[in-house]
Amino acid sequence: MPQAIRSICILRLSAIGDVCHAVSAVQAIQRAHPQAKITWVIGKVEAMLLADLPGVELVVFDKKQGKAAFKALKAKFKGQQFDVLLHMQVALRANLVARMIPAKRKIGFDKSRSKELHSLFINDRIAKQESPHVLEGFQHFARAIGAECGEPSWQMPVTEQHQQQARALLPEGKVFVISPAASKAERNWLPERYAALADHASDQGFQVVITGGPTALEQELAAAICQHAQSELLNLVGKTDLKTLLCVLQQAQLVLAPDTGPAHMAVTVGTPVIGLYAHSNPARTGPYLFQQYVVEVYHSNLLAQKGKTAAQLPWGTRVKGADLMAQIDVDEVIAMFNRVVKEQGITNHE
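RESULT FIELD:
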C-alpha cells in the first residue's frame, strides 16, 4: 500500500480568478486526504480573499518585496519537507518560488503547457489534457494525488459579518451587478454600453450595482457608466474589501463582467454570470458554470488574425487589439440578459 500523504503544499500565487478555480481542487484534495496538512503559497491580494480558508495554512508571498520575499519563504520552510508540492503556475516568478519549497515530489504541468523553465523545477507532471478550462487543469493536480473531481464546488471563507456588510450596502429587491473592469483596459467593454445594459435591467425591475476596486481605472470607468446611464445606479467601486464583494456577488441575482476576477468569484457562490470575451478563449477562461452565457468575439477575431480556428491552434492562443471589445453589440448582450433571466427563473427577490 502506498504511504499516506501527510503534507501537501499548493503553489498558486495569482490571480483572483485562478485562485478561485484552484479552491475547488484544493477542497477536493481535502476530502481525499483529510489527514494531510495543507499549506498554500499565495499572493498578497489573493490571500485577502482566501484568508481563513478551512483547513489550509496560507503563506503569503508578496512579490513587491523582491528578494526579501524569497528569503522569507526559504526561512519559513527551513527544516521542513512536504510529501508533495502541487506547482500550479508556470510563470517564471512562481518557478523560482518553487525552488524555495522543499518537497519529495514536485508535480507540475504537462509538457505542452510547460514554459518559462517550469520543467526544471518539477520531478513529476499531471497528465496531458485536450482543450482544458483552467479549472480543469487544477482538477488534474488533485487527481494526480488520488482525489476525485466531478462538478466543482466551493466553500468560500466568509463570515456572517461580511454577509451583513453586503446586505447593508445593497438596495432592496433583485440586484444586477456590473463588475466592469478587467486588469487591462483593453478587456473592458465601453461605458456607454454598460450603461445601456444598466438601463435595460432597471426597466426590468432590477436594482443596478457597479462594483470594483479602488484603482483610478476602475473609479473612472464606473463614473463614466453612471454618467451615460439614464437610470440611477449604486456605485460601490472602491467601497468593499474582497470578502464583502464576494458576499455582494452572492446576494445578487445576476452579474455582468468581462474577463476579470469577480466573474469567477461569482461562480464560486453560484450567481449566474454573463461574461464578455474578446482576447482569450472563454472555453479556457470563461465563468466555469455559466459558459453558455458568454457573449464573445474571440473566435471571429482569432480566425481573422491567424487564419485558423481554436481547434487548429495551440490551446489558449490569444488575439490582440485595443478595440476588440467594441465589436460586442449591445443588443446581443441585452438578448443574453433576457435569456439568463428567463432560464434562471430570476423573479423579484424575496
